[in-house]
Amino acid sequence: MLGFQIISSLKDDGCGHLEVAECKPSKKEREYKGHSANTHVENYCVLDLETTGVFINSAKIIEISALKVRNNEVVSEYSTLVNPKCPIPKAASAINHITDNMVADAPFLDDVIDDFLTFVGEDIIVGYNSAGFDMNIIYDCVMSLRNKPFSNDYVDVLHAVKRTLPHLENSKLETVSKYYDLDTSGGHRASKDCYLTKACYDTLFREFGNTAFMKRNYYSEYQGKGFQYSPETIALQELNNLLASMLCDGSITMDEVDSLRYWVEEHRELSGNFPFDKAFNSLDKVLADGRVTSCELKELKSVFEEIVDPVKCVGCHDQVTCLDGKHVCITGDFDYGPRGAVEKLIVSRGGIIDKSVKRATNYVIVGAQGSIAWKTGNYGTKIQKAMELIDKGFAIGIMEEAEFIPAIQKLEESQ
Are strands 363-366 and 397-400 parallel, antiparallel or unpaired? Predict the structure, then answer.
């Protein structure tokens, strides 16, 4: 897999700067990226990369390996070191043992990307933690070098591990490989990790069948209420708790940033989920110029506060003056009464009820009693969707019951 550079000391330049690996500009949204196959396949290519770091916008490829598999058997292999045109961080070399000398005479990515694309063709890609990392890096590189998307569908073995082996101390490839008594010597090199990934993929299928690779829900003890949450939701709950703990003393320290970076390393498969992307992109942006200032720490604090309690931070506090033709979605339980009563009140004022949040939604109204079924203590799926759309530029107002109900009750008095 890849090395992760954690730097806990600040450079003494009077501004609270932190040196980090070289970064490149952020990429546009990967709109043509492939999708999870959600099934076991017998014909595919295994893929693994070694890179200079773990942040997608700054990591550079230093090794690519792939195995072509037909009828569950490896029929050919592709592997090459890559000269990243920059020094390899010592922390990365300490893990994957790839040094600057080893890649000094290696080809540049531009020289090998076509051979790699020819090798994998249109195969489904099987990888470990590939959905949130390897596939994104390859996508960006192919788009940058060849101006076309890398759209192969994929199977992420990490997702299957999280579904089937929740009792393991962690979900790292090395941990899972040792659990299945696989030889991990020489690990953290792309070719070796390809073979370990395939071995884990095969073993999981033998032990759990195709259900290991299909999306399904699991019991969460997070709230102790017996609700069924997906592994992704449980991890997002953990992120919410982590951010909340960082904010509890009113500020964010560099040690806490380091802890968050460790957590990101463990959960890159969450890419594509809100609020993971918001937290990740904010952190990536702050680290992009190679330093972190006290002002940027304050910016992170503001973003994280919004993630932890979006209703409080971005709620719409303007009085509603008219509901005619406005789309309204409600969430949580209300002091006013049952949801049906709230919906009836909204309709009586000319509003249109949306059962789910969509682009046309004008308001999301949050009941004062909240809901024990929410994904976190502060919000659930509807607020999450509203925040995603707000980030994309859609004008959706989020209001609390205490402001909304009195406002629309006054509408009748003014008519």
Answer: parallel
